[in-house]
Predict the structure.
Amino acid sequence: MSEILPLETEIRRRIAVAGPMPVAEYMALCLADSEHGYYTTRDPLGARGDFITAPEVSQMFGEMIGLWMAATWKQMGSPENLRIIELGPGRGTMMKDALRAAKVMPDFLKAVVLHLVEISPALEAQQQRTLEPLSMPMFWHPALIDVPPGPAIVLANEFFDALPVHQAVKTEHGWHERQIEIDSTGSLAFTIAPDPIPQFDRLLPPALRNAPDASIFEWRADNVAMELGKRLTRDGGAALVIDYGHAQSAIGDTFQAVGRHAYADPLSAPGSIDLTAHVDFQALAKAVEAMGASVYGPVTQSQLLRRLGIMTRATSLKSKAAAGVAADIDAALKRLISEGAAGMGVLFKAAAFAHPALGVPPGFEG
């Protein structure tokens, strides 16, 4: 038997004391435990990490986001003091590329103060190294609610998929919360709470209430989405959320683990592999809208990047590149916008949220 990691020892202790642990509690511990959590103890990105995000695929991704921010700022009336807030900024790659592209609007850059929401000391250190050459004011915060009020543009690329997800399983008696127990062989295993969740049917979207037995429904706490909606409605501005997930609430188990660029058992090696679940864009939009903000999309990542001009940008980059580099640009472009199974173009969606007076943000027309 392989060595049990310190976080698994703690999880087993908690289960022994309090009984089976809800999936959301397990996911929160695995990702954000202050001593042993996946995000708090390592840089998981890039070829040597566990996964690659769109900004790491190509500079073109961040450049399109930069043009989106500059155009949105103009639409806001060009406020002189703009908070750019990024939730979960990774290595800072997207922001670096975005602000480089935004140099075409120097007045926009003069207005910017960067606010980065990050829980990982390792990633915060990397972000500081990446963004230091920008020579602009920047601050780090543990949560969105800690960012000072004021007009803002908020970015969240692959942020919401890493927030803890609850799961419920349908039986003939109702919907039961999915939990993690220690089974008869001494292994971590899925189980369900003995009693159904009261009135759970009433919380489900009507189309899902007749789901067959053994169906799984996932949901997240709305606190971050509601804080986002409240901030935009109160202070003005817009948010761009890009993540993988489904446009409409749906039945299905999307709780998964990735380690070394391959799928893994989510109950193996807690704290050493990445855990995610698809984003329910309908539920996200509902929470933001409840606080008064307007919702646009979702559109596919392919649609957004094409509308923002990524094809033109790729042509421009290739015109100045050697043959081998041009081939790399084509490969990166294909990965970002391809609508096939291996591409990110359709699996990833983009939604924009905005102050009601702003109008339709760039890339969401029609």
User: Anything to note?
Assistant: The longest helix spans residues 59-75. The chain has one domain: 1-359.
